[in-house]
Write a structure and sequence with these properties.
- The complex is a heterotrimer of chains A (530), B (365) and C (300).
- Chain A has 530 residues and is of the alpha/beta class.
- In chain A, a hairpin with a 2-residue loop joins strand 11 and strand 12.
- Chain A contains 19 helices and 24 strands.
- Chain A has three domains: 175 residues, P-loop containing nucleotide triphosphate hydrolases (Rossmann fold), CATH 3.40.50.300; 70 residues, no CATH class; 147 residues, Rossmann fold, CATH 3.40.50.300.
- In chain B, helix 6 packs antiparallel against helix 11.
- In chain B, a hairpin with a 2-residue loop joins strand 1 and strand 2.
- Chain B has 365 residues and is mainly α.
- Chain B has 15 helices and two strands.
- Chain B folds into two domains: 94 residues, no CATH class; 262 residues, ABC transporter involved in vitamin B12 uptake, BtuC, CATH 1.10.3470.
- Helix content of chain B is 73%, strand content 2%.
- Chain C is mainly alpha-helical.
- Chain C has a domain of 209 residues.
- Chain C contains 13 helices and no strands.
- The chains are: A alpha/beta (530), B mainly alpha (365), C mainly alpha (300).
- Chains B and C meet through helix 2, helix 6, helix 7, helix 12 and helix 14 of B and helix 4, helix 5, helix 11 and helix 13 of C.
Chain lengths: 530, 365, 300
């Protein structure tokens, strides 16, 4: 069927512009990401799509943008059924997506990125002036200021996002899909984005706003749709529900994945970080003058908007990046100048936020993956050879204890699901005779069962082995529920310390995470123990 | 038959398809070979059968096959090691050549008792080969230089550097052609099995194969090599000394290739005779691909390749077919075996069907 | 030795040695921009060299010979691109296999056509002419420098500008850079990534084939066994040293050309020729280390 974007003009504000009916998406490894999802957007609204990690938000949007083909269901645009088999068709239908990872070519200019895919030409040459002209025009039309000749790699994250949104508008998008747009933004950038989005709404554009930050959703969205476990739970007017109501819908019960844990009984400091600073490759401080300690038997959570120095801190603690300035002591011994093996031998275990690149080796077996930090030790050797019999029996034990679903100990990691891969990582790191655990996003994007198992194991480590844990998580419920104390990182600094996580909530943390508030240095200094 | 036996693991299915792909590649290559032969030959059927079974005609030819297989054992294992570590180092060719040159330098000295002379000559080849392959590795680790380019350049440096030594200080003016002085009798490799064309290099080569497969799959260092090759960042994160592993593996691989050059020279010739690359290094790459970097199967693949080469030679004697037909066959085999997506749809279907079967069985339990 | 380096003969020799390298270097620039690790240029050049000779010998037309030569090289480029892009074959192995095919396959064809394995000197193939530019050729010094080179050498230098224009000034070039740098982003705005890379590889193959033609129809009057002798690889190295910039790449190909030219005359100066032959490769290695250590400094 021939489709013309003009049909959108005939719609009135508030009429349904797009509806997805009974969408079911099953991935190649059998994971059901969307199950009979129904989702409707009206013309001229900002529609929040909320849900926990792994609830199926991104998948649903990818289906809409033609990047995933659903097994069942249909999509209607202005009442006409359409088949969106690739992004080009989505763009033709006026659907534009702004991904979490920007789809920009870093070495090209703003104008070149804007017109990529529908470039103006003059003879055989690319018409750069026309590209600049078009960029200026669309920039003016939407009141989004960009410099057409700036090179993408020189721009800030917020600026890049603006380019992405403009790019989609230039390609004729009427329906904008924004996948967690605020996760990477500073509070100022977020405020600016909201102003821009509201302007677009007034012009009759429809926007899908994916987030799990409820305050933001509450602030900007007209309606919200909640996804849970791949299913659509409900769609309501934002005005009629409280954040509490939304969170209940998101998790399906009153409390967040609540794992019972006793009050902690902290002992001596295991990790002491003093005056630690780190400059990234551009010479900018990722974090500066950090001071904190974690005591044995204590879980210290780190809250913060992505990009405030958490990843760099985790990498420095793991030995993946050098200690440039300041010091890190583990059980009183400085790890400065140690290689990763030496650091691990001091009892440091690491769950890296990127489990496929760092946490595991996809083409090696489970057995080979669980011995990567210990294969050289006497325990695993016999006469100078690896004692494979022992390795296999150990692996089988771990597979059993960590409920890893796989063909067997010799199954390659790439054949496992995300949750099971993370269980393999946990199985190795949690059995490494650890004193200190650096856990970055340990349950991100994995199924609820695996989440629960990993969280329980972390608390068990704390209680039975007195492990000290530094827990980085973008999931505030995980932090509030899983940590004993919490620090907040903002702009590369610690801006708050809460000794008792049970006395804080998401709103309080949010204010510090967004940099609206900051504690006194005495309060923050409480995180340093002798 | 019980339910359990019916279901396979994904790994088994993938293994099956890798065998099917290999057979398919060989079949396509042979069909192509038949086509090529028929363009030149007056009697393509006869010539094609010479290609297939020529070496079986007499024991002399079979001995040629085994003798041609010896250097391939070395380069095959050498490349398997370095590729297991994920390093695209293609200096095995240069290491082989340099090894031959270095052992020539030692082998022309008179007056060293036989066993010591042989050991010294082989050692010289191994050390030189290690240097040739080690330099690109060190350049990569220290200066982040792309190994494929630097190792390529290294091949030529080894080639011309080696030729310089052979054709200048070591050139025998009385030879009547461009060659080095003759080797001392004490440096020539002893014969085995009472045949004057089979030398002890065969045993050394087989020992290298055993050494390589034990190292890679049984020793902790081999685990480091394979892990670095499978996912370097995972290896770093796990605390495996990655740079050290890369450099040591390159040195070891170069030493094996270099020793291969020594063995081939001291086993078959009375003086240094090469005037250019011998292609044994490139053949080693093909063998490693065929064997998926597992030294254990290198002897079979090496035998296969040596067999083809012998066929081509005998074809060249009995017909008009140029022996270069082997390069064509080799190229086709490599390219089809390495084509990962070949038959992938069929393979994927099998895996999906199998997963469903597994689910059904699990339900049944 | 120095008097040679400052002589006109040397300039001619550098350009003669540099021309095939320049073509491959430009081919490699396009391959690199599309982020394709292609080492199959040797194979493409050999087939093009042979195709040109055979085509021109049988048609007695330089143009027909050139077209057939280019098509032969193109076929190898297409096989490479198809296997790498659509069958997921590792580019290194594909390149290796096609180079092997180039060395062996061409000899096979030579034998098929001439009954000899060494070269095609028995075929009466044509050569590209030298160009004497009117007026300029009469200007002292400059005339000698600029005029009188082979037609393909001029084309090689023009090719630098063409490649620069293609990569940095055309729509296709923009798309090639986009798919090379961030294929996901390119795909998200509807660019067909594989098709774009395929096209880039075809262009790259055609340019490399020009280098092959030069070898058998200008550098030498006939095709000989493995006559490219690693030039395909040197072109890749030049691209690497020139960091993908056509003009820097050109400079490095000329440096290699100079080293080869010196090598060719070294014997006359009682220098071992092997040292001279080794020079371009040694220079590359040293160059790579210098560039590498400089990058390391800027990184820290």
């Amino acid at each position: 069927m021939e489709f013309n974007k003009k049909v959108y003009d005939d719609l009135n504000i508030g009429e349904d512009i797009l509806s997805m009916e009974n969408i079911t998406k099953i991935y190649g490894n059998g994971f059901v990401a969307n199950k009979n999802v129904n989702f409707t957007i009206r013309k001229g609204e900002i529609h929040g799509l909320v849900g926990e990690n792994g609830a199926g938000k991104t998948t649903l949007m990818k289906v809409l943008f033609g990047q995933e083909i659903p097994e069942e269901g249909r999509i209607l645009l202005a009442g006409r059924e359409v088949n969106i088999s690739n992004p080009l068709i989505a763009l033709e239908y006026g659907i534009g997506m702004v991904h979490q990872h920007f789809m920009l070519i870093e070495s090209l200019s703003v104008a070149e990125n804007m017109v990529l895919g529908s470039e103006p030409v003059k003879g055989i040459a690319f018409d750069y002036d026309e590209a600049v002209h078009r960029t200026k025009e669309v920039s003016k039309k939407f009141d989004l200021d960009v410099n057409p000749k700036a090179i993408i790699r020189d721009l800030s994250v917020g600026y890049k996002q603006r380019v992405e949104i403009l790019k989609m508008l230039l390609h004729g998008a009427q329906i904008l899909l924004l996948d967690e747009p605020t996760a990477v933004l500073t509070p100022q950038e977020t405020r600016e984005l909201f102003i821009q989005l509201k302007q677009l709404r007034e012009k009759g554009y429809s926007i899908v706003f994916i987030s799990h930050k409820l305050n933001e959703v509450k602030e900007i969205c007209d309606r919200i749709t909640v996804l849970r476990g791949g299913e659509s739970v409900s769609t309501t007017d934002t005005a009629t529900v409280s954040e509490q109501d939304i969170s209940k819908m998101m998790v399906g019960r009153d409390v967040f994945l609540n794992i019972e844990k006793k009050k902690s009984n902290p002992g001596k400091p295991v990790l002491s970080v003093s005056n630690l600073s780190y400059k990234n490759k551009f010479g900018l401080y990722a974090f500066k003058d950090l001071n904190f300690t974690i005591r044995s038997g204590e879980i210290l959570g780190v809250a913060g908007v992505e990009g405030n120095g958490q990843s760099e801190l985790a990498n420095v603690l793991a030995g993946l990046e050098p200690i440039q300035d300041g010091d890190i002591k583990v059980n009183g011994r400085s790890i400065k100048g140690m290689n990763i093996r030496q650091i691990r031998e001091e009892g440091v275990a690491v769950i890296h936020e990127d489990r496929m690149t760092y946490g595991t080796s996809a083409t090696q077996s489970i057995a080979e993956n669980v011995i990567s930090d210990r294969y050289y030790k006497e325990e695993y050797k016999k006469n100078g050879f690896i004692n494979w019999e022992y390795v296999v029996s150990k692996s089988k034990e771990l597979i059993q204890n960590y409920l890893i679903k796989a063909d067997g100990y010799d199954a390659e990691i790439r054949t496992l699901s995300g949750g099971n891969i993370q269980k393999v990582v946990a199985a190795r790191e949690f059995t490494s005779k650890l004193k200190l655990l650096i856990a970055s996003q340990p349950t991100r994007g994995i199924d609820v069962g695996a989440q629960e198992l990993i969280r329980k194991k972390m608390i068990k480590l704390r209680d039975e082995e007195n492990t000290a844990t530094l827990l980085f998580s973008a999931d505030l419920s995980e932090l509030l529920n899983g940590s004993d104390g919490i620090i907040v990182m903002y702009g590369g600094k610690i801006t708050a310390y809460f000794p008792d996580a049970s006395l804080v909530n998401e709103e309080i943390l949010g204010e510090y995470m967004l940099g609206l508030k900051s504690q006194s240095s005495e309060e923050i200094g409480g995180v340093v123990h002798e | 038959m019980s339910k359990k036996e019916k279901v396979k693991t994904t790994k088994q299915i993938e293994g099956m398809f890798s065998i099917i792909r290999t057979l398919l590649a060989v079949t396509i290559a042979l069909i192509f070979a038949f086509f090529l032969i028929s363009t030149v030959s007056d009697n393509p059927i006869k010539d094609f059968s010479t290609l297939l079974i020529g070496p079986l005609a007499n024991t002399g030819r079979m001995i040629t096959v085994v003798s041609k297989m010896i250097p391939l054992l070395f380069t095959g294992v050498a490349v398997s090691l370095i590729y297991s570590a994920g390093q695209i180092n293609i200096a095995a060719e240069g290491a082989f050549f340099a090894g031959a040159v270095a052992s020539t330098v030692v082998a022309i000295i008179e007056g060293i008792p036989a066993p010591i002379h042989i050991i010294l000559s082989l050692l010289a080849g191994a050390v030189t080969g290690a240097i040739v392959m080690g330099i690109p590795a060190i350049m990569n680790v220290r200066y982040n230089v792309v190994t494929i380019v630097s190792s390529l350049m290294m091949n030529y440096v080894a080639l011309y550097g080696g030729l310089y030594i052979i054709l200048n200080p070591l050139r025998d003016p009385s030879a009547g052609f461009e060659a080095s002085f003759s080797f001392a009798k004490s440096a020539i490799l002893p014969r085995i099995l009472g045949n004057d064309r089979l030398h002890i290099g065969l045993l050394i080569g087989l020992a290298v194969v055993i050494f390589g497969s034990i190292l890679l799959y049984k020793r902790p260092f081999g685990y480091s090599i394979r892990t670095v090759g499978a996912n370097k960042r995972f290896a770093i994160y796990s605390g495996i000394p990655v740079d050290k592993t890369i450099v040591l593996t390159s040195l070891l691989s170069g030493a094996i290739a270099g020793m291969g050059g020594s063995v081939e020279t001291l086993g078959n010739y009375s003086r240094f005779v090469y005037s250019g690359f011998t292609n044994h290094g490139w053949d080693g790459i093909m063998l490693a691909v065929l064997c998926r970097n597992n030294p254990k199967t290198i002897p079979f693949a090496a035998f296969f390749l040596a067999y083809l080469k012998t066929s081509a030679d005998s074809l060249n004697l009995t017909s008009k077919i140029p022996p270069e037909i082997i390069s064509v066959i080799q190229a086709i085999i490599i390219i089809f075996i390495a084509a990962e997506k070949l038959l992938s749809k069929w393979e994927h279907k099998k895996i999906v069907a199998n997963s469903q079967k597994v689910m059904a069985v699990e339900k049944g339990d | 030795m120095l008097d040679y380096i400052f002589s006109l003969d040397f300039v001619y020799a550098v350009i003669r040695m540099g021309t095939p390298l320049l073509f491959v270097g430009m081919a490699a620039v396009i391959g690199a921009k599309a982020d394709i690790l292609c080492i199959a240029y040797e194979g493409m050049m050999l087939f093009a060299a042979l195709g040109g000779v055979v085509g021109s010998a049988y048609s007695q037309s330089l143009f027909v010979g050139m077209i057939i030569g280019l098509l032969c090289g193109l076929v190898i480029a297409i096989i490479f691109a198809y296997f790498v892009l659509y069958l997921d074959t590792k580019p290194l192995l594909t390149g290796l296999a096609l180079n092997t095919l180039g060395t062996g396959g061409t000899v096979y064809v030579v034998y098929l056509l001439t009954g000899m394995k060494l070269d095609t000197s028995s075929l009466h193939s044509l050569r590209f002419p030298a160009v004497h530019i009117p007026i300029i050729k009469d200007i002292p010094i400059i005339g000698g420098l600029i005029s009188g080179h082979n037609l393909l050498s001029y084309i090689a230098f023009i090719m630098v500008i063409v490649v620069w224009y293609l990569v940095f000034r055309t729509r296709l070039g923009l798309r090639i850079r986009a798919v090379g740098e961030n294929p996901g982003a390119a795909a998200s705005v509807g660019i067909n990534v594989k098709r774009t890379k395929f096209l880039a590889m075809m262009i790259s193959g055609l340019i490399a084939s020009m280098g092959g033609l030069f070898m058998s129809m200008a550098y030498m009057p006939y095709f000989t066994n493995n006559m490219t002798a690693g030039r395909g690889f040197i072109g890749i190295a030049a691209q690497n040293l020139g960091r993908g910039n056509p003009f820097f790449t050109m400079i490095y190909t000329l440096i290699f050309g100079a080293a080869m030219a010196i090598g060719n005359t070294a014997q006359a100066y009682r220098l071992p020729s092997q040292f001279a032959s080794m020079m371009p490769y040694l220079i590359t290695l040293i160059g790579l280390v210098i560039i590498g250590s400089r990058n390391k400094k800027t990184k820290n």
